[in-house]
Write a sequence for this structure.
């Protein structure tokens, strides 16, 4: 028995367990992504933490991201889109808040896995217990009441919504195929402080064998960090923010492609970005405003109106937040306020 | 145990087994767990599944969604299985379906916060005996669309009901191969709307009490353009005089209260054998996109309605309370009632023949509508050359072909199934 274990030292008994088809494990621990105390999120061998230049807003949750690929496999670099990741790849994203009821101690709410199964990418959501010892697979989890405290001391109470597995597909959708959203070159192209030192993520993934074909980081695209004014222009930061909070649906192959409003960072057509664009199906979401973006006038722009709402059917994004991202709204307001020009007035109702 | 006890026990056991089996075969049960069980069933369904819903007033507070192909959802009746969304706290639709081969029948959606039933990018969609309703009547707080297939192919909507939508009750957008029939639309802004879609048959419907009865629109700036080939026939479109409650600035908010059938910029539309009456702005209206007053920045868009054939309709009444910027300007000039059939007179100057008219196959043709009055109100010339003369429109066009859908999947009898 001991001989077998020695022969199998790098595999099997203690390493991450890949699952590439249903049924998926009922417990997060069965994946063995983390070692030691579960709530410490200490990555197991081969589990690499990563971060994004600009993330999606999720009610101010702290998000811990990790990637793992089966031994001997790697992703193939792509300059525009998510890399071509091998079957067996596991992305995990763990959402946590500073618990107001426990003096700001971290409380983990959920871990979402995005797994490259044999049949394609699959979302597998796990909900953590109050004791923080285990997380259980729930295809349709109930909302969780979270009392959390901001570093400034302000307390918030939210009904935190955990997406069901259909709702994963609601955003992770390119032409009806489920895809990863975050791990693109432009979003990964940044430094991370690993246990063994600080390094650029594209370079590090290449070094540990997880990425093949990547150019030197200075030659790879880089998305702006939305919240770092020193790093980029206002326009670049706003475009990065819109791409990561809206562009997953609002692109020609995304679930909101019926609107004709396309908000990826590379979108060059001002009308597609919403400038003087009449809404298509916003309905009450338009707030009686006429255009998605009015140059110089954030208060007349439907984009801002919907970002500031928390009413279902008015708020944008439709899913993924219950709070208003005040800092994000402020960025987009500044961006619109800085635009020159204006919209030719459309005639009001009843002009037919 | 005595023999009698054993017999009683056996009877009790078999009764218990029988009722629990019967419960399984009849699908989900009403009760506090209904929503979670329904959504779980939608998530875990395998292609070909039939999800049976119980009779009852069934509360739902999160959006339902389906991504599995070839699933049928079947209730116990359009007024018997009612999904109630008054307390909806998340999501922009009551139910969102993105998979193919979808059938839904015999149930209702009430008071969703946003759209009621949205089907996005699906092939082979059958909606039968489904009601979407906002029970408080017309309000700008109601959701925009009731029955809402968009970017779909092969769509059948029949025997369904849409009430109270703040945009359109039955709305088919950016789709192709569509039949909307034997349905009822009331108290919506737009009763039935076909927008940027190709090959649609809209027939034997009743559209009344809306702001506008039946809309056939083709708009710019949408990913799918070039809508056309729509037949509107054998419908009853009457008394659509509910004041417009659409979101300000939206396209539908521009539809004048009292509009019967309106064709906007779409090509190849045949409006025939309808009963269109008592719509207090106009019973039939044909307009170009210019008349909406919206700017046009889309170089690939054709704003002119062409090959429009309005014939053999029974038209009467209405025109007595015209609304909308154009009608309000015209009424003092021409008096009331407004003419039954209104055309904005704007044609594509690049397509006119030497005789200064549209080629035969692109004309606006208006024939055999009894003594329904007509006006070309010269919107492009600021109403200078008003004309009531139908002479130039006394033509016919080749009838459009019927829409053919692949045979819809058979249902096991009517409501309740045939299990």
């Amino acid at each position: 028995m001991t001989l077998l274990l020695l022969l199998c030292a790098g595999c099997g008994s203690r390493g991450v367990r890949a699952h590439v088809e249903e049924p998926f494990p009922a417990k997060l621990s069965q994946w063995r992504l983390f070692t030691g105390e579960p709530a410490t999120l200490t990555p197991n061998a081969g589990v690499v933490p990563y971060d994004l230049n600009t993330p999606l807003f999720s009610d101010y949750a702290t998000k811990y991201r990790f990637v793992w690929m089966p031994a001997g496999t790697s992703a193939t670099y792509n300059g525009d889109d998510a890399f071509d990741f091998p079957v067996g790849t596991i992305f995990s994203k763990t959402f946590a808040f500073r618990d107001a009821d426990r003096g700001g101690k971290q409380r983990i709410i959920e871990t979402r896995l995005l797994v490259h199964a044999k049949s394609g990418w699959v979302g597998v959501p796990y909900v953590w217990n109050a004791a923080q010892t285990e997380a259980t697979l729930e295809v349709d989890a109930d909302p969780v009441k979270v009392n959390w405290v901001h570093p400034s001391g302000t307390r918030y109470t939210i009904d935190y919504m955990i997406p069901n597995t259909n709702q994963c597909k609601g955003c992770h959708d390119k032409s009806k195929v489920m895809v990863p959203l975050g791990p693109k070159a432009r979003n990964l192209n940044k430094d991370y402080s690993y246990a063994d030192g600080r390094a650029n993520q594209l370079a590090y993934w290449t070094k540990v064998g997880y990425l093949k074909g990547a150019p030197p980081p200075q030659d790879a695209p880089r998305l702006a960090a939305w919240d770092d004014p020193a790093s980029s222009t206002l326009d670049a930061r706003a475009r990065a923010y819109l791409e990561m909070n809206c562009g997953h649906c609002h692109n020609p192959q995304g679930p909101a492609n019926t609107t004709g409003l396309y908000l990826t960072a590379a979108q060059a057509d001002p009308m597609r970005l919403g400038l003087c664009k009449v809404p298509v199906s916003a309905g009450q979401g338009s707030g009686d405003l006429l255009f998605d973006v009015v140059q110089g006038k954030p208060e007349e722009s439907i984009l801002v109106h919907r970002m500031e709402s928390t009413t279902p059917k008015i708020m944008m994004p439709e899913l993924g937040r219950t709070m208003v991202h005040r800092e994000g709204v402020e960025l987009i307001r500044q961006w619109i306020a800085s635009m020159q020009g204006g919209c030719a007035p459309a005639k009001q109702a009843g002009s037919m | 145990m005595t023999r009698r006890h054993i017999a009683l026990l056996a009877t009790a056991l078999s009764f218990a087994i029988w009722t629990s089996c019967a419960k399984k075969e009849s699908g989900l049960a009403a009760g506090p767990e209904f929503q979670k069980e329904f959504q779980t069933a939608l998530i875990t369904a395998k292609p070909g599944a039939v999800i049976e819903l119980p009779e009852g007033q069934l509360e739902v507070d999160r959006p339902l969604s389906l991504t599995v192909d070839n699933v049928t959802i079947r209730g116990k009746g359009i007024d018997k299985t009612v999904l109630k969304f008054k307390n909806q706290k998340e999501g922009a639709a009551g139910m969102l379906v993105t998979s193919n081969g979808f059938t839904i029948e015999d149930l209702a959606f009430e008071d969703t916060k946003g759209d009621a039933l949205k089907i996005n990018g699906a092939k082979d969609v059958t909606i039968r005996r489904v009601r979407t309703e906002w029970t408080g009547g017309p309000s700008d707080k109601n959701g925009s669309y009731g029955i809402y297939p968009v970017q779909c192919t092969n769509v059948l909507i029949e025997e369904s009901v849409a009430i109270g939508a703040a945009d359109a009750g039955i709305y088919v957008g950016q789709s192709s191969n569509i039949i909307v029939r034997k349905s009822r639309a009331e108290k919506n802004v737009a009763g039935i709307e076909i927008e940027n879609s190709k090959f649609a048959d809209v027939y034997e419907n009743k559209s009344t009490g809306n702001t506008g009865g039946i809309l056939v629109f083709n708009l710019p700036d949408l990913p799918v353009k070039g809508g056309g080939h729509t037949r509107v026939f054998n419908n009853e479109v009457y008394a659509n005089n509910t004041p417009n409650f659409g979101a300000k600035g939206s396209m539908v908010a521009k539809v004048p209260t009292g509009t019967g059938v309106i064709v906007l910029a779409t090509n190849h539309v045949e409006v025939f054998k309808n009963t269109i009456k008592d719509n207090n702005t106009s019973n039939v209206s044909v307009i170009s996109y210019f008349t909406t007053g919206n700017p046009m920045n889309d170089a690939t868009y054709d704003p002119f309605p062409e090959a429009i054939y309005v014939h053999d309709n029974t038209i009467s009444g209405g025109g007595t309370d015209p609304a909308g910027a154009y009608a309000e300007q015209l009424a003092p000039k021409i008096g009331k009632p407004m003419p039954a059939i209104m055309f904005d007179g704007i044609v594509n100057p690049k397509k006119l023949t030497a005789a200064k008219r549209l080629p035969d196959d692109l004309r606006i043709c208006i024939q055999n509508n009894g003594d329904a009055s007509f006006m070309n109100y010269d919107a492009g010339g600021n109403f200078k050359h008003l004309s009531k003369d139908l002479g130039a429109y006394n033509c016919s066009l080749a009838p459009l072909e019927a829409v053919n859908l692949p045979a819809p999947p058979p249902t096991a009898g009517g409501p309740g199934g045939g299990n």
User: Anything to note?
Assistant: Chain B touches chain A through 65 residues (CB under 8 Å).
